[in-house]
Amino acid sequence: MKIVIMGCGRVGGRLAAMLDAEGHDVTVLDTDTYSFRRLPPNFSGTALLGSGADEDTLRKAGIQEAEVFLSLTQGDNRNVLAAQIAKHIFNVPRVICRIYDPLRAEMYSTLGLETISPTVVFAQLLKDKLEG
Amino acid sequence: MYIVIIGGGRVGYYLSKELLNEGHEVLVIEKNVLVHETFVDEMGSICIQGDGCEAATLEEVGTGRADMLVAVTGDDEDNLVACQVAKHKFNVPRTIARIRNPRREKLFKELGVDITVSSTQIILEAIEHEVPTHALTHLMPLRGKEMEIVDIKISPESITVGKSIRELSLPKGSKLALIIRKTGKHRVPTLNTVIRAGDQIIALTPPESEEELRAGLRGS
To answer: Looking at the domain assignment, is residue B128 inside a domain?
Structure first.
């Protein structure tokens, strides 16, 4: 499966490595080459310098053939913009967007974007742990 | 009208000044503490410090009763999100976003931004206009019509000089509206109108036919 990941931070880099190890065709984007240090030495996917909010970069990353796009940068709004470009301009079948702000995440999910708010997930996780 | 402005930088500052002078109720939301301080020092308490993309902040300033929200931060994504939250959460009737990347205009409109203003595009057009060798100048886009008004200059070297409009091959969707002669005389072109050196032709065209129109009129 062709997967494009925007943001090679801890989560993006780790996910890219995991999916690559499973044999998926992974392209990971970041605006800072230094972030690519997080990819393991045996990473066989593509690490591409550029912004996922830029259509040309996305095209270079092979977004037109991608089945999945994930926006995982630190910026909620950047993630939202890139995810909407992937969804509405390139019609990527599955787009997942990280949004830290729970209210914003909720709103965008009602607008049809598949969102994950790490804030909500992690708070719930901690609560379950304390109660469990 | 009650107008909420996101971004208290230079654009937000002058915009709020203008709108206040016209008698509107204006509220500005600025994220940066220092920028907010400067704004309040100069303009008084019409600016609050906060994130205009956050529903809670927008709620606080009563965006629900706003007639218009204008997002003029220097960040395309922030402007988009502020407009989307205003539109979808607070049903603001009119949202306007400033954009830097002119290619995002279409996407933003699809996503619930009513009007986009591209500062980059405006600067480009203004400069283009001042470059004398530039054959085609964009005068104005017609909003929502996928058409624009352009100005084409005929140079003395153009091989179309001396030909009538009938003899030219022009794109179907384009229409010549006006010919202004070097002497300043102007006329509505007909099929028999002859192109002369130094003519300035005002035409209406879909953006995608612009190149073809330029080539048709200038012969190169």
So the answer is: no
> What CATH number is given to the structural domain containing B186?
3.30.70.1450
Interface test with B, best of A55, A81, A104, A119 (most B CBs within 10 A): A81
Question: At residue A61, what are phi and psi to the nearest 5 degrees?
Answer: -75, -5
A78 vs B contacts (CB less than 8 Å) = 77
Q: How many structural domains compose chain B?
A: 2
Q: Residue A45 half-sphere exposure, CB side, CA atoms within 13 Å?
A: 30
Q: Provide the whole-model pTM.
A: 0.78
Inter-axis angle of helices A76-88 and A102-110, nearest 10: 10
DSSP B65: G
For residue B138, what are the domain limits? 133-218
H helix runs in A22-117, sequence order: 55-60, 76-88, 102-110
State the fold for domain A2-131. Rossmann fold (3.40.50)
Residue A33 C-alpha from the chain's centroid = 17
Q: What is the mean pLDDT of chain A?
A: 95
- Contact present, B96 and B71 (Cβ < 8 Å): yes
8 A C-beta contact, residue B161 and residue B196 = yes
pLDDT for res A93? 96
For A53, which of B77, B89, B110 is closest by C-beta distance?
Answer: B77
Interface pTM, i.e. ipTM:
0.84
Residue B38 burial (CB < 10 Å; 0-12/13-18/19+)?
middle
